[in-house]
Batch of 2 targets.
Target 1
Amino acid sequence: MLLRLFFLLLASAALPAAAQSIAFTKDNFGDNKEGLREANRELKDGDTEYNADPARYAQALPHFLAAQQFNPNNAGLNVKIGDCYLHSSTKTAALPYLQKAAKLDATADARTHFLLARALHLSGKWREALAEYQQAQPVGGNTRNGSAETLTANDLQRYMQQCRTGQQLAARPVRVFIDNAGPELNSADSDYGPVVSADESTILITSRRTGSTGGKKDPEGNGFFEDIYQASWQGKKWSRATNLGTPVNTDDHNATVGLAPDGQRMLVYVGTNGGDLLEANLAGSAWTKPKQLGSRINTKYHESSASYSPDGRWLYFVSDRQEGSLGGSDIYKVDMEGRTQPVNLGSAINTAYGEEGVFMAPDGKTLYFSSEGHNSMGGYDIFKSVFENGKWGEPENLGWPINTPDDDVFFVTSASGRHGYYSSDRPGGLGAKDIYRITFLGPEKPPVLSEEDQLLASRLNPVKQTVLAPAVAVATAQVTILKGTVTDDATKQPLDAAIDLIDNASGQTIATFRSNATSGKYLVSLPSGTNYGIVVRQDGYLFHSENFDLPAGAAYAEVVKDIPLKKLEVGTTIVLRNIFFDTGKASLRPESTAELERLQKLLTETPALKLEMAGHTDDVGEAAKNQDLSQRRAQAVVLYLTQHGIAAARLTAAGYGETQPVAPNTTKAGRQLNRRTEFKVTAK
Amino acid sequence: MIQKPLLFIVLLTAPFAARAQVDTVRASTLPGPQLAEKAYNSGLASFQAQSYPAALRSFDQAIAAKPDFAAAYTNRAATRFELKEYSQAQADYDQALKLEPGNYAGYFGRARAQEAQNHLTEAEQDYSEAVKAKPDYAPAWYNRGVLRFEKGDYQAARDDFDGALKADPKLAYAYHDRASTQQKLGNFAAATQDYTQALALQPDLLPALLNRATTERRTGQLPQALKDYDAYLAKKSDNALAFNNRGNARFENKDYAGAIADFTQAIKLDAKYAYAWNNRAAAQLKLEKYAEAAADASEALKLKADYAEAYLNRGHAREMLRQADEACQDWRKAAELGLKVGNDYAAAAGCAGEATE
C-alpha cells in the first residue's frame, strides 16, 4: 500500500510542470519489475482485443484500465481507454482519459484531437469540442494501428454543426422534468424501448436484465438477450415490471417497439431475418404468440421499430431497405389491411442519415421520431413533425435537455401529451440505459404581479376646501359711558351735583345731568364724534373739569370716574381739562373758550378770589423749553382773563415746566396727564 | 333686572333727553342682534384658529340669538364637518340653503358632507349645483371630477377637470387628476404631459412622478419610468407602494435581483403589504428560487386570503418543487378567485378533478 502511494506521489509530482508521457519501460519502472511485467501483459491483451477487426472495445477496456492503474501517465494508453469508452454505452467516461492524454502529449495527433472532440461533444462541452474538431482538421482519413478509419471533412463539418446546434438549443432549454422511472422499471442492466398505452396505465419495456428468457448473454458484452417486461401505473409509481414470459419472450432477442393506444396489440422486434417486426395480441390478461407482420413490412433488411396509427389501420415503421430509401434507415407508412406497398414518408421526415424510433402520437397527426439528420445536436435526436394540410411540417428538435449529444431514441408520449418516455444512459441512473419519464411543463408560466396606484391627488393629500361665510359687521354702539360718584372731597359724602355736557367745538352745553342725591352716582352717555367738555359743579364748590375727545367711530367704552368736588379754599388746585393749546405753542385753541368763560364767571361771581394760573408739561424735550412753554401758556390764560375784565392783580401766572408731574412720564397716558393747566386759589 | 337693560336702551337711543337719575347699569349688555353677530365673528375666529369646539359653541350662540342667521348655519356646518359630525353638518347646510337658496358655498359644503357619508350620488348633485351657482369656483368642478373618476366615468371626469382648470389654470391637482383620467382612457401621451404640468406647477406633488412612471411603462419607456421612480424615492423613501411599483418596473426590465431588493424594502416598510410579498414571489420564480417563491406567496396569502395572483404564483412554485397536487390546488383556487388561466394550467398539468367555474 505504501509502495503504491509512493508511485502515485511520484506520478503526480512528475505531471504538473511539464507533463510528459511515461513509457512502460524498465527505465521508468526499474524498481517494480514485477508490476511492469504485469502491466505490459495487460497492455498486450488489451491491444489484442483493441486491434481485432472488428475491434472488441468492451473486452479491451478492462486490460487497459488495469495497465493504466499501474502507469496513469502514458498518453497512448489513455487515448485507447478513451477510444474504448467512446465505443461503449458510457461514452462520456472517455473524457478525463482523453484530456489527460492531450496534456501528456503536447504533440497529440489529429486523431487524438478528434477523439477528444468527440468526448467533449458527447459531454455537451460545445465550445471546447469545436476547438478540438478544428484541430482534427484537415485530416480526411486517420489510421489506427494500421486499420483505416474513415473520417471525412464532411463528417467533421457535420459534427461541428451539431455542436453549434447544441449550443443554441442548450441556451434555451425546454421546461421539462426528466425523472428516472425508478427501480420498478429499471435495472442495473440496460432497460429501454418503453411503449405506453394512451392513458399511461400500461407500459412495456425491453430489458437486458438478469433473468432473461433462455439466459443467453450478448457476445459483445451488452448484458443478457432482450426480453419484454410489463408494468402498470399505480397512481404514484409503476408496479414492478414483470417478464412477459413465453410465448412473447423467447431464447432470442425480444424487444417491444410499439403498443396500440388501447394496449390490446403490441409490436415486437425480433433479431431474425436481419431484424423483423411481429405483432402480439392481448387475450384476456395474456399475450398471444407474436406473428409476422408480412412481407410488405418485413424484408431481409433491418426493420427495427414501428408504431400504430390511433385507429390501428396504419403502421409507421423503420427499415433500412434500399428501395426508396433516402439514406440510412427511413420511416415508412403502410396500410395494415390493404395490399399497397409501404410509402417512404419523404424528405420532410427522412434524411440521408438514419431515422429510428418512430412513434405516432394518439392525436394521429404528431409523429415523433429520432434522426441523425435535421438539426441534431449529435447522434440521434428526437424530433416531432405535425401532419397538416396534407404535408409534414418541418421537424422540430425536442430540445435540450431531452436530447443530448448522444443517441436519443424510442420516445413515446401519453395521449395527454403531458408525459413522454424514453431511455437514456444519462448519469445518475440505475445502470447502463434506463427508462426516463419526461414531464412536459409547457412554456414558462408567467408569474403575475400586483400593484396599485394613487391616481387622485386629493385622495392622497387632501387639501382644506372649507368655504366659510365671511365675518359680519357687528352693530357695536359707538358710545362711551362715563359713570362714577360725585363726593365732597373733604367729607367724602355723596353730592348732588350738576353735570354739564359741553361740546367744546361750539362751546354749547349739550345737556346737563345731575348725580343721585343720595348715592352721588352718575352716568353719562357720550356718543362718539364730539370733543366733550364735562363740568361737574355744585354751589359752594369749585367746578370740576373733564375732557372726552371721542372721534367718530370710537368704539364702545366704559369709563368710571369718581369726582371729588373741592370747596373754595385757599390752596385748592383745580385742573382745567378743557383748555387747549396748539401743539408746542402758547396760543389758545377755540375749543378752550367754554372753559375760559367758566373761569371768568367764577372770578366774576367771587370778587375776592385770587388765582395763580399754572402751566405744566411732560418731560419730552428740553426742560428749559418746557419751562418757558408752561410759563407762556399760563400767561396766555391770564391774558385772556384780563382781556375779559378780570383785574390783573387777582391773577398770577406760573410756569412749572416738567417739575411737578402728577403721573409718571413713562406712558402716553401719564404724559397727557402731566401736560395740564391748573389754577390754585391764592385768596378768597 | 328686566328694567335695567331697558333703561339703558333708552339711554342709548335718547341719551340727552332728560337728566338721568340712575343707580347703576351694565353698559356692556348689548342688544340681541349684535350678540349674534359678535358670537358669529368669535366663532369664525375660533374656526380659523382650529378651535372647533369653541367655534361650535359660538355658532350655537349666534344661531340661538338669531335663528335666521344663514351664515352662522353655514359656518356651524363647516365646524361640524371638521369635527366629523357629518350628518349634523349636512343638516346645517340644509338650513343655510333654506335661508339663502342658491348659495354655492352651501351646496359645496353639503356636497362634501354627503361625500363624507358616502352619499355619492347626492354629493355629485350638490357639486353640480355649486358649479351652476358659481362656475368659476374650481374646487366644485374638481371634486365632482374626482367622484366621477371614482365611479369609472372617466370621460365626464376629464370634462370636469377641464372645467376646474378653466376656472383655475394653476390648479396642479386638476392637472394631476386629469392626467390620471387620460391614463384610464388610454391616452398615455396626454397623461404624461399633464403629470409633467402638475409637477411644474407643484414640484412637491410627488405622486405625479409615480403616476408618470406608470404611463411611461405603458408606452414602453422603461428607462424614463425607472428614472421617475428613482426621483420619487430619492425624495420619499418611506413609501412601500413606490418601492413595490419600482420593483415591478425592474421586473419588466428583467432586473429580477433589483426587483427583489425593492420588494424586500417595501416589506421592510410595511410587513403587511401583501402585494410586495406576492411580487417578490414572482421575481423569485424568475430566478428559479422556487422554495423562496412559495414561501413568499404563502406569506401574501396569510395577509390576503382571497389573493388569486398569489395562489397562481405559488402554484407555479409548487409545480417546480414537484408538489404536483398542491400546485393543482393553488391553480384551481386562483381560478375560483377569478384568474381563469389557473384552470388552463391545471388542465395542462393533468390535475385531477373538475375545473372551477
Target 2
Amino acid sequence: MAQLDLRRKLSILADAAKYDASCASSGTSKRSSADGKGLGSTEGMGICHAYTPDGRCVSLLKILLTNFCVYDCAYCINRVSSNVERARFSVEEVVKLTLDFYRRNYIEGLFLSSGIIRSGDYTMEQLVRVARSLREDHQFRGYIHLKLIPEADPLLVEEAGLYADRLSANIELPRDEAIRRLAPQKDPGVIKKAMGQVRLKVEAARPGKKDRAKPPKFAPAGQSTQLIVGADGAPDTEIMARSASLYGGYGLKRVYYSAFSPIPDSSAILPVSRPPLMREHRLYQADWLMRFYGFSAPEIGQSATDGMLDLAIDPKLAWALNSREQFPVDVNSAPREMLLRVPGLGVKSVNRMIQVRRWKALRLEDVGRLTRSVDKIRPFITALDWTPGGLTDAVDLRQRIAPERPPEQLSLF
Amino acid sequence: MRVETLAHEIDIDGWRAAARRLRLAGVAPENARFRVAGSGQGGLLDQIEETPVEAAPAPAFAVPKAFLDLAGEVILHRSADRFDLMYRLLWRLRDEPNLMRITTDRDVADALERAKNVSRASHKMKAFVRFRRIEDQAGEAWVAWFEPAHRVLEKTAGFFVRRFATMRWSILTPDGSAMWDGESLAFGPPATRDMAPDGDAVEDYWKTYYASTFNPARLKTKTMQGEMPKRYWKNLPEASLIPELTALSAVRTTTMVEAAPTPVNARLARAVAPDARVSGSVDDVVAATLPELDRAIQGCRRCPLWRDATQGVCGEGPRQAKLMVVGEQPGDQEDLAGKPFVGPAGQVFNAALEDAGIDRADVYVTNAVKHFKHEPRGKRRLHKTPNAGEVTACRWWLDQERRLVKPKVILALGGTAGLGVLGRKPAVTRERGQPIALEDGATGLITVHPSYLLRLPDEAGRVRERAAFVEDLKAVRRLL
C-alpha cells in the first residue's frame, strides 16, 4: 500500500472522528506552564478556538489513531465492512500534530479515539502511549480526552485516567437490544462496567477530609458518553430515561446526543436520511432541565406524544402548558425551584431575580430587563404591577406564545 | 462644565482619581466630562474651557468593591461614553448604597452588559489569537496579529503567559502590543498588520483539519457566526474555507443520502471480531460451578431489573461455606464493583461479623435479588425495594447457590431476603432468631438487614440494635 502523506492521514482520521459530538475542554484541574517548564494550561473554562459551518466548536484536535476497526457497527463510518479509505497515525505523529497545533493556539488539547485493532487491550495501550508521551516527554499541560475501550484491562484504564482529563465510553444506542442488533461486537454490559470502574476511581481520587496527602488525580474532568438519536427507533422518553440512569449511575459530566447523520458508504441495515437536528436540540434542552432545573425524566415525558417531545416548542414550555395549575408564580415570593420552572427563565435570570428582590419589589419591566423576552414569561408569572388574569388558563395560550409554524428543521435544506 | 483628562484609553487609576475629585467637589454627572489626552475625540469638547477642580481635602468616601471591579471592566469597552456611565453610577451610589445589587436598574444593567461584552472580547481573544512561527537570532519565536473587539490586550496577556510561558511570543494589536521573552511581560505601542508574519507552514494542516472535522449534513451557519463573528474572520486562517465548505455542503449531503449502500468490504471483513452476542438464552442455565453461575447471571432477563443495573452481582465466598448469608439486593457500590456487601451496609455487616467472632472469608455472602433496583435522582440512585415478583424470579439463582454451596445454616437479613430463602414473606421481628427447618436440610434464621442499623435516627437506638444484631450472629456461630 502506498504511504499516505501526513495531511491525507489527518484528513481521513479527522473525518472519521467527527461523528463524536463531545468537544468539552472545561472543568478539569487548574494547571499552567508558568513554572517555566512544559507547555500549556487549563483554567477551568473551556475555550472554543474555532467554529465550523455546522455550528460546532473546535476545541480539541479530535482524531482517531486509526480508522481500521474489527467491529462492524452498522451506524459507524469506520465499521470493518465499510469501504472508506483507511489510515493509521504513529504515536509520534499524533504527539507532534498536537504540540504544533497547540503552540499556534489552534486548540485546547487532544481528543483521541481509535478503531479497535487487534484487541481492546492493544488499542487502549496505543492511546495511553500517546497521552503518556505528551505528559511525560513533553510536559504537556493542556487538555487530553481519551476514548475508553471498554473491553480493555482495568489496569490500562487506570493508567489512562492518570494522564487524561476526561475519559469517555460511548453507549451510542439507547436500547440494549439495538446494540446487539446493530453493533454485534459490543456488549452494553461491558461498557457499563467500564463506566462504573471509572466512577469508582474518580471518587477514590477525590481527596477526603481526613487525607493528609492528596491522592493522585484520576480523570479530573470526569467521564461522558454519547447517544445516537434516530438510529434505533428508541423514542425520546426512552432516551431520557437512559440518560437519567447514566447520570445517576456513573456520575457522568455529560451525555451527548448526536443526531444520526448520513455517512459516506452507509450500511444497508440503516436508512440514510437527513439528521434529526431539531430532535437532537430538544433532547439537549430536556437534558438541561434534568441537570440544572430539577426536572425528572418522567416529568418532562408527561407532555410527550407517543414518547416523542414536541418539536415546535421547547420541553419546559410544553411541561408548563400541561401543568397550568402550578401557575402563575409570584416572582417576588416564589422559591427558587419554582422560578426555575417558569418558561423563559434561565438559571442566571432566576439567581439575579432572587438577589434583586431582596432590595426592591420586581415589576414586569424588571423581569424584562433580566430576560431575553418577557412575552413568553408573562402568562406564567405575577409581578408587582402584573397579573395574567385569565391568560394563564387561556385555551389558545400555546397559539399566542408559539404560533404554529411548519416544524422547523435546523438546517438549510 | 468640568473636564478631566485621562492619560490613555484604559487609565483606570486616572479615572478613579478624577472621579473622586469630581464627586468630592459636588460636580453632578451632567456637568462632568472626561477626555483622553491626545485622542482629539472630544471635538467640541476640546474648545470648552477646562476648569481645574481643586483637590478637595475632604476624607475619601467608600464605594462597594463590586463597583470598582465593574469599572475596571467597563473602562475597556470601546464606547465613548463609558466614563460618563461609570461616573453616573458613582454619583448615585452616594444616595443609593445598594445600587450595585439592583441589577435591573437601567445604569447598572447597562454597565453589566458592557462588562459582559468586554469579558466576551477577552474570551474571544484567548480563542482566536493565531501564532505564526518565526526564527530570529535568538531562535524560535511566535508572533500574532489580532484585532480585539474591546481594549482587552492587557487584561488577557496573562493568560498567554500562563499557557505559553516557555515560548517567546508577541501579540500585536491596533491598541498596543504585548511581548513575552520567557521571563517578563512588556507592553509596547500600537502595531500594524504588516509587522506580523503572513503565514506559517502548519496552517495548511490546520485548514485540512478544520475542513475534515466539519459535517456537511449539519449546516448551521447562524450558530457558527453567533460564536465566531465575522469581524474576526480576516485574521483566522481557517475562515477562508467557510464560503466553499458552506456552498458545497448541500451537494455533499445529497450525494451521501442518495448513494446506494456499497457492498461489504470483503477483504477487511475477514478480520471481523467475534460477536459479543450471547447465543441462545442463558438465563435458564443450571450451573455446575459457581463461576458458571456468575456468567449465567450476567445474561439474566428473568425480570426487567437488568436494564438499568451495571451488572448482575453473584454471591461470593467459599463453595464449602457452612454459613450462607443472604441480603436483599446489591446497592449502588455493589452494582459498580460487582461484589456483594462492599457498600456502607456491607461495612456495618463486616464489623458486626468480626464482633461475633465470624471470619467473613468463611462465609458465603449473597443477595436475594442479583440486580440493583433503583430510581435515578439527579446524580444519585435511590434504592428501591424489589417486589415479590422480582424476588421470586431471582430465586432461580439463589436456589442454585444453595444447591452448590450446601450450607448448614442460612441467615436471611431482612424481609426480602426471607422471602427469597423461605418462599414466603416472614414477620422479621417475630421470627427473628428462631431456627427454621428448611426443605434442603439447612437451618434457616432471620434477623434485620444491616442497613436498618444505618437508618436508625438516635444513637441509643443504634447501639441497642447493633448489639442485638451481633447477638443474632453469635447465635448463628453456635449453630455451625
